[in-house]
Amino acid sequence: MNINSLHKVVPGQRLKVAAYARISSDKDVAETSLDEQIDFYTRTIIQNPNWDFAGIYYDDGISGTTIYKRKGFSKMINDARVGLIDVILVKSVSRFARNLIDLLEVVREFRKVGIEIYFEQQHVSSLDVKCDQMITLYAQFAEEEAISVSKNQKWRIEKDRREGHYYIPVNHMLGYRYDSKKNIVIQEDEANIIRLIYKLYLEDMGTTAIADFLMKEGVKNRHGLVSWSVSGINRILHNEKYAGDCLLQKEYSADPITKKRIYNHGEREMYLIQNGHPAIIDRDTWIAVQDKFKRMGEKYNVYSPARERVRHHQIRSNFGNFIICPYCGKNYMVKTNHYNGEPTNKHLMCYSNHKTKLCKSENYPLVPFKKMIAKQLEILKSNLNVFKECLTAEFSKPDKDSTIEDIASINTQIDELRKKYDDIKDFHDDFFSSLQKETLNQINGLIKQRTELQNKVVVTDNYRYRTNKIINNLKELPDGYGDIEEIDFKSVFSKAVIVSKELIYFIVGNGDIENPPLDPKLLFTSSIEYKVRKSSFNTTFGILIVK
Fold first, then answer.
1. What pLDDT does residue 342 have?
2. DSSP-H helix ranges across 223-330
3. Handedness of CA 343, 345, 348, 352 (dihedral sign)
4. Do 127 and 220 belong together in one domain?
5. CB-side neighbour CA atoms (13 Å) of 116
6. CB-based burial label for 9 (10 Å; 0-12, 13-18, 19+)
7. pLDDT in tens, 125-156
8. Are 378 and 478 in a shared domain?
9. Are 244 and 97 in a shared domain?
10. pLDDT in tens, 335-371
């Protein structure tokens, strides 16, 4: 591999070189396997005496049209930002990113700090400003290719739909399986559960009562759990597939780059295929259930599947991935209660409990939680200097010495393994090929350990930067908050932890904390009172700074 790197080389220092590999899921053509890419780049980097192996980052089966879903890519970018990587090797522009805006943002950001991305296929270095036009051109080609592939796929899917070909997601619904010839067949033991649900509903048992009945009888759902919800029962009773029909294109992807799914309100043609597969529910029973739902809806303004899907796609809470449960580790979600079909109030609920109570965590009303965030921010703003001192004290805690010693020990092991590899790399029989692969795997494992330790050192070295960033973010937040969800409170708080109705705290700093403490020593504490019906509650809250 001939690489004309433009990175500045300091005598006596080796460049920290990493590579990025990706196998896409949005092409039908054969590609070099991920294992082959990883093996190739590992050998290429290790065999260069002027390079220090900084690791291989990869994503398997993830589209390149957006960078945000690629965990390997995101970790590589973050590691480069904190100084763990000097040069990134990648096969081509399209392997790195097809989204032109994403690509240029990363290239220009890295160029400012001297980080190089080398595109092997195009022989292009991101450090050469003259190559921006070439990179843009290649990225545009890649983006157009993604759009073209998307159009071809849509055409093929549309053709299949018109001809009556479709796929049923049997892994997520009761009653159906695919046989060895890819035909849809009825799974009788599960189909009997579906028939029972329809029978009970027509016998005037409500959806809540049906869910309770199934759990009491120990009936398992498609995932083997004795867990049933009202919304799940509703979906079964409205699912046209159980009548042997299939309504296609309920959702569609409006943008081939972002691939965001949108519920179809008529913007795209829908296809109703009738009697396309074996029916579990006879036509008369199906019609009777839908007629009853229609009568109930008109009388009480109750559940509508279409309205539920619209609400699902419209509601976006800024508390997503923000509140963590200290008991099971899941995130909290925003749950809306309804009365006669109309929303009444919202509360926060651990995701483990969204269907059945599986976690000991408690729900918490959303309105006082919002007030709590606003009050906590006001307290920190009023004590800005003290808050800054607390951040500095925690972020700069000296634990570097032992970490640096561990890094030095790992570097010694890596150097020894590199020498071992150099001694055996020219032998090509089965024994030495196996030994070479084993040695490379050992080096890869040590590199991962070293990267984790280096991240710890970087965090400590950058304590002033981290402190000032949080303080500046706090200063930039507006005074007199309206709706707290409209401001960027996450720029100050990494996470929130609901211990109980009496104790909640906000994490400042590292939000990747494992096993959040149930009785932490909090700073800048206060309390807030609220009522639920006739009961009054008082919640203590504060912050926990995590290095």
1. 46
2. 230-238, 283-300, 305-314
3. negative
4. no
5. 22
6. exposed
7. 888 877 767 766 665 665 566 556 556 555 55
8. yes
9. no
10. 876 544 444 578 899 988 877 788 999 999 999 999 9
For residue 141, the domain's CATH number is 3.40.50.1390
The proportion of the chain whose per-residue pLDDT surpasses 90, expressed as a percent, equals 25
Look at 75 and 288; give whichever has higher pLDDT: 288
Task: Give per-residue pLDDT as tens, 302-328.
Answer: 545 444 443 443 344 678 789 999 999
Tokens of 113: 């700090």
418 part of a folded domain: no
| 308, HSE (Cβ side, Cα atoms, 13 Å) | 14
Could you tell me if residue 193 is inside a domain?
yes
164 has a pLDDT exceeding 60: no
Is 339 inside a domain boundary?
A: yes
What are the angstrom distances between the C-alpha of 364 and each of 124, 519, 546?
54, 18, 24
* Model-wide pTM > 0.85: no
- Tell me which residue range forms the domain holding 278: 164-312
Total structural domains within the chain: 3
First-to-last C-alpha distance (Å) of the chain: 41
168 and 111 within one domain: no
| Mean pLDDT over each residue of the chain, to the nearest integer | 79
Per-residue confidence (pLDDT) for residue 194, from 0 to 100: 94
- Following DSSP, what letter does each residue of 455-509 receive, concatenated? HHHHHHHTHHHHHHHHHHHHHHSPSS-SSGGGS-GGGT-SEEEEEETTEEEEEEE
CB atoms inside a 10 Å sphere around CB 236: 24
Give the tokens for residue 6.
Answer: 């433009």
> Is residue 65 domain-shared with residue 104, that is, in the same domain?
yes
Same domain, 304 and 370: no
Q: Per-residue b/e over 470-498, b at no fewer than 16 CB within 10 Å? A: bbeebeebeeebeebeebebeebbbbbbb
Pair (258, 357) in one structural domain: no
273 in a structural domain: yes
Higher pLDDT among residues 387 and 26, named by residue:
387
What gap in Å lies between CA 443 and CA 447, rounded to an integer? 6
| Residues 256 and 146 sit within 8 Å (Cβ to Cβ) | yes
Q: How far is CA 69 from CA 64, 66, 161, 259, 513, in A?
A: 9, 7, 29, 11, 22
Are residues 323 and 304 both part of a single domain? no
Q: What is the dihedral of CA 30, 36, 37, 43, to 10 degrees?
A: -160
Q: Which of the given ranges, 73-77, 123-127, 515-519, has the highest pLDDT on average?
A: 515-519
End of a domain among 312, 345, 364? 312
Q: Are 372 and 529 in contact (CB under 8 A)?
A: no
